[in-house]
Amino acid sequence: MLMDIFSSLDAGTSLGFSLSVVIWLSGFVGALVLVNSFWVDYSAGNLFVYAIFSVVADLVKACSGKFFGGFVVGQVCLFCSILFLNLAGMVPSVFGVTGHLSLTFVLAGVVWFSLIFSGWTYNWTRSVGQLVPTGSPVLLIPLLVLIESVSVLIRPLTLGVRLAANITMGHLMLHVIGGYLAEFVSGSFMMSSLFGSVVMGGYVIFEFAVSFLQAYVFVLLVSLYSSDHYVGH
């Protein structure tokens, strides 16, 4: 019988022997072996890391956040932190912190509040004025202010839920696939075991891509939110 799939999200999950964990680990190791030749070349690894930093930096520079002191560096560090935590949660029996709202909501809330506080402190009249779209009818202004205020207030919630939901779904799928493959492999032959490891390895590589995309989307949305910050000339 399969264990409760949500048990893989518990911080106190047992580290005892489990065939599903072994299959999960085999897929994780297999994915690392596939990219091992790339990381052996030190210069290639440097170019890859530099390319990632450049993509994130260019993303931030396309928004108003480029005018804030240290915002670009902060966003790059935020991206690296989220990506590292996402990848760390992929390791079997390691607690995936980015799959829980207790971290993602607080992280999103701190970043969002910093932008809001900075904008309203810098020029609160301009910040209030952004709640009313240009050319709005006078009678609709109260309703538009309410709608814009709600849309701004729910931003940290959507940021945190989006990251946690996508990472949690990936962990659950790894747990489910590992459990089914464990039952399949336990009653089959060597070829079936090899096939199971290949399937798990392929899905682990897919989750690597998801981990990168979720960190990128998080930074992208924060950068877009920075465009609401008034920038004086």
From TrEMBL:
PROSITE patterns: ATPASE_A. The gene is atp6. It is a multi-pass membrane protein. Coiled coil: none annotated. This is ATP synthase subunit a. The lineage of its organism: Eukaryota, Metazoa, Spiralia, Lophotrochozoa, Mollusca. GO terms for cellular component: mitochondrial inner membrane; proton-transporting ATP synthase complex. Pfam families: ATP-synt_A (PF00119). GO terms for molecular function: proton-transporting ATP synthase activity, rotational mechanism. It is found in: Membrane; Mitochondrion inner membrane. The chain crosses the membrane at residues 12-36, 42-60, 67-88, 94-117, 138-157, 194-225. NCBIfam families: ATP_synt_6_or_A. InterPro entries: ATP_synth_F0_asu (IPR000568), ATP_synth_F0_asu_AS (IPR023011), ATP_synth_F0_asu_bact/mt (IPR045083), F0_ATP_A_sf (IPR035908). Gene3D superfamilies: ATP synthase, F0 complex, subunit A. Belongs to the ATPase A chain family. Keywords: ATP synthesis, CF(0), Hydrogen ion transport, Ion transport, Membrane, Mitochondrion, Transmembrane, Transmembrane helix, Transport. CDD domains: ATP-synt_Fo_a_6. Its main location: membrane. It comes from the Eukaryota.
